[in-house]
Fold:
Amino acid sequence: MPTMRTTNLPSGEAVPILGQGTWYMGEGRRTAAEEIAALRLGIDLGLTLIDTAEMYGDGASEALIAQAIAGRRDKVFLVSKVLPNHASRKGTVAACEQSLRRLGTDRLDLYLLHWRGGVPLAETVEALEGLVHAGKIRHWGVSNFDAPDMAELARLPGGGHVCTDQVLYNLKSRGVEWDLLPWCRERGVPIMAYSPIDHAPAGLMAEPVLKAIAARHKATPVQVALAWLLRQDGIIVIPKAGSVAHMRENRAALDLVLTAVDLAELDRTFPPPRRKAPLAML
Ligand code: NAP
Structure:
């Protein structure tokens, strides 16, 4: 097992390029024991970045993570998100405190605005900067921000401290390659690719091109989809795995090196964007 590859936040701090998503965890899709075992195995395998949100199961995902990281908080880079309707000056602080309580910790490593809502961005940034100064969060970022949103954010006081933009990015959804990814790369801001295996991966798993490439590498279509993202610089990939089998399979995607022929075949079936389209989101 090779060591986990990392990418840098703008601060220079290294974070793993493969982390763990947790949407729908703690909601009974699988037993809590199965999900906790998957999360713990993930940490052992180096997927120490765990992504959650107050929205997920109305706190159930954060509560489950608290159990999975009990006694190993310092090994984990913990990410949570504030809902846009909570993202006022006072509301952001209250939401963060609730998340900390559910997660059983005294600080988040990264706190994201889940998507843009009605609260002025400057007010949310001020609240996030205040949380950093108070030691409740170490870094902050955003999610579902398109390139013009990022440009607007960067012009605000403190807005240049944004650490990441978490966006939908997978083989079937490549719009970010047009302008958002170049904008972030130029500024050393990594992107977090959510739904990297298309949220409900049955469709991807049935794609003939993915099956053919997977067969050539003795891999699986899910691993091909993950390896396609993991080969790129400045991308943090956060698949959600509810079982230890899926966790092991996803971790092994780091070892899969796609060839130029594979990449050309993938481009033919899932072409890169040819023009600007609004940012896709789930
Ligand atoms: P995803 O990670 O693309 O796909 C998750 C699905 O894939 C689950 O049904 C999972 O099933 C299955 N799966 C995982 N590994 C597999 C494997 N090796 N073989 C077959 N199936 C596999 O979708 P996602 O959960 O939407 O996205 C990942 C994370 O990104 C989320 O969990 C969340 O943390 C974050 N996210 C953020 C936003 C946002 O607005 N910021 C939006 C969406 C997602 P099992 O559970 O059975 O393993």
Observations:
- The CA atoms of residues 63 and 102 lie 5 Å apart.
- The two ends are 33 Å apart (CA to CA).
